[in-house]
Amino acid sequence: MNVRRRHISGIAVTAAAAVGLGTLSACSSDSSAAGNTDKFDVVASFYPMQYLAEQIGGDHVNVTTLTEPGQEPHDLELSAKQTAQMGEADAVLYLKTLQPAVDEAVGQADVKTKIDAATLTKLEDHGSVEHDHGHDHGGEEHAAEEHSEEAHSEEEEHALDPHVWLDPVKYAEIAEGVATAFEKADPDNAADYRKNADALTKKLADLDTAYKDGLANTDTKVFFTNHAAFGYLAERYELTQEAINGLDPESEPSPARIKELQDEAKADGVTTVFYETLVSDKTAKTLAKDAGLKTDVLDPLEGITDKSKGDDYIAVMESNLKALEAALGAK
């Protein structure tokens, strides 16, 4: 597998080495640490996985997360303690390709139940498709240029978009798979896991309906965002995401890209440039100022912090819907 080399420098090595320390540091004094409770201990890689584990597991699980609130998950490096915790857990729930350090540590860890959310739904390649970057202008050539960094670092996987949790339908598919894995790994509580999963998928179906209804009739279908996290959401609700940057939230757009977005804003009636809570809003604000557009937050839900517009996945997704309705001119 050819993961993002630009993120992996030293991380994988550290994680792999730390796995070897697992036996030494497993006797953690932290009673809530994975492996030290009489519950079903789950290590989740970042917030969307944590939310699923907590909702489906309910009272039967003890969930620890590897990505702290406010931490950008793409850049996660694991401590020796975290890697040791993983080795002590009953299950680890992660999303392969999003966090190379986690992928490496999971591969080395002796955990009975490893749940890769990427295998529970279908990941798609939004990295070079037109509706992210080359929408009606410059086509493949432009998209290729935008994604040259991703392309050369991920030739084999070609930047499959990991942001599946932002599509409630795909997220529900993952929830079903997680429930099945929990039932198998902890059969004594299988009935409760199933009941909790059914309740969660009902919430996600209601959320999907709210998005469908709210975005069915709008002045424009195009929205600008800081980085290409919303490809699945755009596809689900027949919108067009135009990302200032690519799938990497930290990359800087070229002057040509900025000019292109300014022209498109005029052509497509775009009113708003969205930025997100965990990444600098500087580029979005510069573009908005130059093009006479508003800015607002569209949260990719990679973590919940005190800046989040809601205290859990459903609440923040509802806030995102309101922001999109306002920006797109929903009737």
Strand numbers in spatial order across the main sheet: 2-1-3-4
Main pleated sheet? 4 strands, parallel
Mean pLDDT comes to 81
Overall number of strands: 8
Tally of helical segments = 15
Shape: globular
Structural class: alpha/beta
Terminal CA distance reads 46 Å
Order of helices and strands: HHHEHEHEHEHHHHHEHEHEHEH
Query: Which band does the percent of strand residues land in?
Result: 5-15%
Helix coverage percent: 40-55%
Quaternary state of this entry equals: single chain
Low-confidence stretches: 1-32, 128-157
What does this structure look like?
- With 331 residues, this protein is an alpha/beta fold.
- It has 15 helices and eight strands.
- A four-stranded parallel β-sheet has the order 2-1-3-4, sandwiched between helices. A four-stranded parallel β-sheet has the order 6-5-7-8, with helices on both faces.
- Strand 3 (91-94), helix 6 (100-108) and strand 4 (113-116) form a beta-alpha-beta unit.
- Helix 2 packs across helix 5, helix 2 packs parallel to helix 6 (100-108) and helix 4 (47-57) packs across helix 10 (168-185).
